[in-house]
Write a structure and sequence with these properties.
Length: 161
């Protein structure tokens, strides 16, 4: 993947996979830390003995933990926009948790640029169709549309947009 692009290049990438992240191992320590941070200590996440008798056969990652790892996957894989002064997480649409991420699984993010439109003098709103693949699984852990804003100095705005 390209590591750096110009602001003017972004609209031409619509419809293409612009990022494929490295694999991330979701281990019990990560799950426990997330449970502590969010105060979500449901047994299917933090109690391996009890979770062994669940339909999952062991502990699984929180769906929101999996979703939150998109930030690390983004930084790891998407090209940097030279003119960007700040990135803003605008939100998600259509988040679906399709398969559980079992403890010890490796996951990675796929990013397809779905839309890019300039707003105001110094903003480019982008939306990505994202999915998180689970190694050796047919169904992804999740799919979503992720909306972000690239902020830049208005003097760097490409002409004719």
């Amino acid at each position: 993947m390209v590591k750096e692009i110009s602001l003017a290049d972004v609209p031409g990438l619509v419809g293409t996979e612009t990022g494929l992240s490295d694999w991330i191992v979701v281990d019990q320590a990560m799950i426990d830390a997330f449970a502590h941070a969010t105060n979500d200590h449901q047994f299917i996440h933090v109690d391996p003995e009890r979770a062994a008798s669940s339909p999952f056969g062991g502990t699984i990652a929180h769906g929101f933990l999996t979703l939150s790892l998109l930030s690390a996957m983004n930084y790891n894989s998407l090209p940097k926009v030279r003119e960007q002064t700040m990135g803003i997480n605008y939100g998600f649409e259509n988040v679906r948790f399709l398969s559980p991420v079992k403890t010890g699984a490796r996951i990675r993010g796929h990013f397809v640029l779905a839309e890019a439109r300039f707003r105001g003098a110094g903003m480019l709103m982008t939306s990505y169709d994202v999915s998180i693949e689970i190694e050796n699984e047919k169904k992804p852990a999740l799919t979503a549309k992720w909306i972000t804003i690239i902020q830049f100095d208005p003097k760097d705005r490409p002409e004719n947009v």
